[in-house]
Design goal:
Two copies of one chain form a homodimer.
Chain A (H helix, E strand, L loop, with lengths): L18 H23 L26 H18 L2 E6 L5 H10 L2 H5 L7 H10 L27 H9 L5 E8 L6 H6 L13 E8 L9 H4 L2 H10 L2 E7 L6 H27 L11 H6 L10 E7 L9 E2 L2 E2 L18 H12 L3 H4 L8 H4 L43 E2 L1 H15 L4 E5 L17 E2 L11 E2 L4 E3 L3 H13 L3 E7 L7 H15 L10 E6 L17 H5 L7 E4 L4 H11 L6 E5 L5 E2 L4 H10 L1 E3 L18 E6 L1 H17 L5 E6 L17 H8 L5 E5 L4 H7 L8 E4 L10 H7 L4 H11 L8 H21 L4 H4 L3 H9 L1
Parallel strand pairs in A: 1-2, 2-3, 3-5, 4-5, 9-12, 9-13, 10-11, 13-14, 14-16, 15-16, 19-20, 19-21, 21-22
Antiparallel strand pairs in A: 6-7, 8-17, 18-20
The structure holds thiamine diphosphate (TPP) (2 copies) and magnesium ion (2 copies).
Chain lengths: ~850, ~850
Amino acid sequence: MTDTQTPQSRLPGTAVPLEPELDGVDAWWRAANYLSAGQIYLRDNPLLRRPLEPADVKARLLGHWGTTPGLNFIYAHLNRLINESGQQFLFITGPGHGGPANVANAWLEGTYSEIYSHVGLDEEGLRTLFKQFSYPGGVPSHAAPETPGSIHEGGELGYSLAHAYGAVFDNPDLIAATVIGDGEAETGPLAASWHSNSFLDPAVDGAVLPILHLNGYKIANPTVLARMPEAQLLKLLEGYGFHPHVVTVEDPAAVMAAHEDFAAALGTCLAEIRAIQEPYRTGSKLAVPADAPQAAATHERAQEHAPRWPMIVFRSPKGWTGPQTVDGKQVEGTWRAHQVPLSEVHENPEHLAQLEEWLQSYRPEELFDGAGRLRQEIAGLAPAGDARMSATPYANGGHLLRDLRLPAYADFAVETAQPGSERVSPMLNLGRYLAEIIRLNPENFRIFGPDETASNRLQEVYGVTDKVWQQRIEAVDEHLARSGRVMEVLSEHLCEGWLEGYLLTGRHGVFNCYEAFVHIVDSMFNQHAKWLKVSRELSWRQPIASLNYLLSSHVWQQDHNGFSHQDPGFIDHVVNKKADVIRVYLPPDANTLLAVAQHILGTRNRVNVVISGKQPAPVWLAPEEAKLHVKRGIGVWDFAGSEDTGPGAKPDPDVVMGCAGDVPTLETVAAAALLKEQLPELRIRVVNVVDLMRLQDSAEHPHGLSDRDFDTLFTQDRPVIFAYHGYPWLIHRLTYRRTNHGNLHVRGYKEEGTTTTPFDMAMLNQIDRFQLAIDVLDRVPSLGSTQAGFRQWLQDERERCRQYTRDEGQDPPFISGWTLEEAQRSTAD
Amino acid sequence: MTDTQTPQSRLPGTAVPLEPELDGVDAWWRAANYLSAGQIYLRDNPLLRRPLEPADVKARLLGHWGTTPGLNFIYAHLNRLINESGQQFLFITGPGHGGPANVANAWLEGTYSEIYSHVGLDEEGLRTLFKQFSYPGGVPSHAAPETPGSIHEGGELGYSLAHAYGAVFDNPDLIAATVIGDGEAETGPLAASWHSNSFLDPAVDGAVLPILHLNGYKIANPTVLARMPEAQLLKLLEGYGFHPHVVTVEDPAAVMAAHEDFAAALGTCLAEIRAIQEPYRTGSKLAVPADAPQAAATHERAQEHAPRWPMIVFRSPKGWTGPQTVDGKQVEGTWRAHQVPLSEVHENPEHLAQLEEWLQSYRPEELFDGAGRLRQEIAGLAPAGDARMSATPYANGGHLLRDLRLPAYADFAVETAQPGSERVSPMLNLGRYLAEIIRLNPENFRIFGPDETASNRLQEVYGVTDKVWQQRIEAVDEHLARSGRVMEVLSEHLCEGWLEGYLLTGRHGVFNCYEAFVHIVDSMFNQHAKWLKVSRELSWRQPIASLNYLLSSHVWQQDHNGFSHQDPGFIDHVVNKKADVIRVYLPPDANTLLAVAQHILGTRNRVNVVISGKQPAPVWLAPEEAKLHVKRGIGVWDFAGSEDTGPGAKPDPDVVMGCAGDVPTLETVAAAALLKEQLPELRIRVVNVVDLMRLQDSAEHPHGLSDRDFDTLFTQDRPVIFAYHGYPWLIHRLTYRRTNHGNLHVRGYKEEGTTTTPFDMAMLNQIDRFQLAIDVLDRVPSLGSTQAGFRQWLQDERERCRQYTRDEGQDPPFISGWTLEEAQRSTAD
Ligand SMILES: Cc1ncc(C[n+]2csc(CCOP(=O)(O)OP(=O)(O)O)c2C)c(N)n1
Ligand SMILES: Cc1ncc(C[n+]2csc(CCOP(=O)(O)OP(=O)(O)O)c2C)c(N)n1
Ligand SMILES: [Mg+2]
Ligand SMILES: [Mg+2]
């Protein structure tokens, strides 16, 4: 079935005679295949002690056979290698739909029963194991969180290789054996992932062993990689920087030849990996010193390229060892084997007979003893304890997790005499804090970003670390080195996938990204949030560090770019996921951002979304206040409002001005200042929201405010003008059950934008100070029509500002240089 | 700056002496570079007639210089080739941030002034051209819809190559010259796109000429492709199936050598493209007949592979011809040239002088005459009329768009004696209709899908067409051929990108996808919706066919898969975009799906999202009713409710049961039937929503219902139990302004799921018939506590159903086989 020459297809085997050992591998493989088919088909008669009857077969036949025997084959061989070499492996199942394989091997290794004691290591256990699979109230069909040894669900294809690299960063002793479906390989994220070698440091990182599972087909089609000329495929993989070892199963029946080839290839790969790593670790290849990037360029290693890591191409039949033909059509070795090769087993006696024959072909009697226990000779082939891939702590990363050492908040918070008197870039300041985190945690914290870490103003981290880069380094380069804590690649998919893999194996990290383009990983976020949701329900899964998004260059602050870069909708996407898992923070200034960062880096099993501007902006809150504000998540800002809260004060303000997000907060404070100047009697309450989930009902979200608290802040009946960072509807969605919702008027981004000034953007979306002040005039009943003149002035001011931008190409200085102090001074005059 | 050998870097030139011609190319390039730098910097003094002053320079310096000279270089050479060969080219700017280049060339070609008459072809025009760029009230910094000749905004990197292939499908006379940033090439979608050649039919499709713009850097980093060994890069590109021609600019000053090399490479590429196409078009390569897939396998061509298409690797300095060093640091040829190489031009006289020197280096006096007109010798180098890439109708696809010929709805609608008496798979039935569309429109309609077209049950289309496949075809393959109307690749990014390119160049299509995984293209959808929003505001952009998503295998109908496949959130994502652009349809049965399909295929400039199940399901509405229902978008279903609407009837029902989505509709109808049986007096109104935007306010969305209409349907004060396909909050968001919103109770997907039965999924999320009936009992005040017994029975039924799934592995037959007829029969008894 192959074409052209396959130069590496029959590798020189190792010197030792393999046969006896390989009999064991083959027995394991047969056992795993038997257990896999059993899971898909059987609800009873697990050992075929009596002739198979329709009643033994599940009512609904659900699962994916096609990929499974290949996964089992690889797994069996990895076990042999683990035993032989003592090497620690993590198994990543790209085609996660081959879940039966993962479960089967975990059972064979005993891990399954250790975790799930109701699934014993005997016939009764087997019956349970079979019946529960893809079954209501049972276990999922994929390599899900429920599956021991998995960090990768694999249902949504494309992320296996990125997860694998993330898992081995800073895990020098680990190899992630990563099975990649040839269909999966057509996806964008997977195609990008091959280049991860340009970012893998052989000194401090482990290795990834990609095993391209070239079974020729996906659901209903052949695959591109399987059908291109083999010479082209090899060029492609070499072009990706790998040394491919091809194992081709020409004849499905020649099983022992396949075992020999695969064992040899695997052995060669391990030897090559060790040969690459050794000089980096024994010091014969010097690491480039982090503090000397200039020197680095002259250094010999700077001229080197990433090592040529080995990989395996495993060309084997889809559905191997399953039914060859069904109803006269070829199944083994075709796409028809993808799911359930034999259907209608209840109604079709021929199919039933074929199923029995298929199951018997694994010779279960040779595999299990009379009590249904795996025979000792086979069970003994499992690696011991944590060396079992189903039991490795790397796949239950919370076990390995150490708390981050966090620097003192006070050392990095910005002192400020008075609200807004300092102007600081929140992201720049956070960069200092992150630098210190890196200094304190040199081995288990990384920052990931799609070529935007400096653009997002986190460049202070380069004072203590570099960007990882294994290709040539030139004299002109800055902050590039072989080792470092910052991972930059122009692929949001890779950033996300690497970070997920890093977190799932027990480390910490942050993904910094332009707000608009984080949508690129919407779907990856979904899958991770789902993973966490399920993991939280499994007592044996230890909590892992949260996935932290740091979104900047946001919708309100585009300069060089325009409409394509303006999209605050990631929040909306995120809040659909389980309330326990997700948090959204909109810190209004540098100190609150810092407090939020400190908080989230201590959390577990969550997804934290933090959105902050990068331009210098007023610091509203002094360090201690900011910390309290973040703790509360929401609060009244007396300095911004004009409520008389002294004795004899009226019970409620005339209007509440809510705000969430840095730019909306600035506009709200400025609007309130305008109103205070003109209408000193008007009682305005300014409420700032940092933790967006506070708006929700306490019944809906653990961070939600009680109705009582909400009513106290937003009143039961006063108009609320709410300026929000994102699409306005979300605020309604979060608050529609609140007493005062009928009086809530939200301004936000309404999908208007282009390349223009920040204030013009605010005006385009009617979230500017003048519009907010107009909104107040229009909604406070007691003002009646008294403020017609003021209202007109506000309208005119908008127009004047707009005209200024057209004439001068920038915002009027009284806008861009606005300070609360001056605004209040003019009020005092 | 290159390494190792660059085998193709100095290609044998064509036989003709190039020099005189290349002087023209160089002059064009200088003019384009001058105009580009002018756009970034100048607000006045456009021809440098007087010494440059700070006041001539814009206040904010915004734009991206780095990529621009390379784009201009390529553009100038393509023009030369167009003149020489008469070949039609479409220019796709992967690094769309190089917008100044596109605008500059459009102005040089005269197109800009033809479209935007206020930007004349003289000095005043130049002043306007410069000032407007990246300027408030001006034009965006990217290759936006406003930019003549562009179909690709390019702000979000990664989609250039996919757009290019989409553009040339079924456009045999077109070549899409596609500049790919070396940073862009790191993204997943771009990495996947190289394989598009496996799906390009040389007979009926045009060609793509990728030009990898290897300027070495992205924003702040070198690029992987630029820094890997060149031999590896060539292997990679050959592995992708290309024949790469490398043009390396070793010495930035050796401009004429670069021109020679590039011109030669371009000429060679065109010759290679024509050499590939010719035999397919003259009949010497026979197309595989669509109706003989078996025969195809034996056919000689089946054993062939995709042709080896040419491409160019253009290794040139980033920011070429710009300032070499600034403040002692190298800029040209580094990442420092990415945006604005010279900053603080107002304050720093040295920078100002350097800017002037830079601009003068293009010798504007040689390029423009005294009136600021482009000198005739240069202007004359532009191709004529539509051959200009800035004026090609391919980039304004609406010009080329022909209406689809749509088959008669009645011929495909399912006759049904009585609501729910037929069970039909809506998707299967739609497949028949799509097949007929394909038959009627063999050249301008395609179906795109990530290996899921059959899985989504559209396989009837294979009766009339095949899946396009240019790699080896084997005897076992079905429905694969060199030509066809179905595009299947395991990449949602490619499906989306191809379809977008296809639509933008004036054709029609559908993207069928699993509902959950369409999130993979969330961000691509964003960009397309933004493109449409802006295009609609430009009178010169002709409307294009809508982007149609057909989402199936949805959240409520997973069998082989589980939680990772359950996500109905794409709707939420979509509704954030401009109301004019987006529509969401949830047809409840086969006939409504058909009517929706017929409708959307006639629309323009929209994104239509259609979600439908694929399993056999009741047909509720007869053909004519279904058509009316879709026209209305919402309607009362008398057959399902129990309202007495005769004379003397009470004014309002006791409860409204709303539903949207096929499974929620089924559960609602079943719940109403249960209630009717037990409580014949209860007046239930069932309202089904097909067009989700009907729920919104008419002020918010053009499809929105007026308040009056909404109140009539949903009453002003009766409880409304609404069963919704997706996350329940969206229904609140759409209706929070409605009178009766306080009584609205929504059930939907609340992120609970796993591999289980359909009814168990409904129960897990409390959207099942029993729960809906309970909701009614709990919310109709007049029922008081009278129904305690019935309520308990409903609760118990839920438990019994759940237990049945645990015991039997499937839904109880009285659920899976439920029919309205029987339910009503039992009521009648
Ligand atoms: C992103 C994504 N798109 C589509 C699917 C639907 N799907 C499930 S399995 C499959 C084929 C996978 O083929 P391959 O990776 O070769 O796996 P194997 O042949 O080993 O089963 C597809 C398209 C998916 N799971 N993920
Ligand atoms: C998907 C995406 N991620 C990040 C960015 C931010 N960004 C803008 S330009 C750029 C670098 C582009 O480099 P390259 O493609 O090489 O273009 P060129 O060097 O020609 O400017 C980046 C990362 C983006 N535009 N799109
Ligand atoms: Mg496969
Ligand atoms: Mg570049």
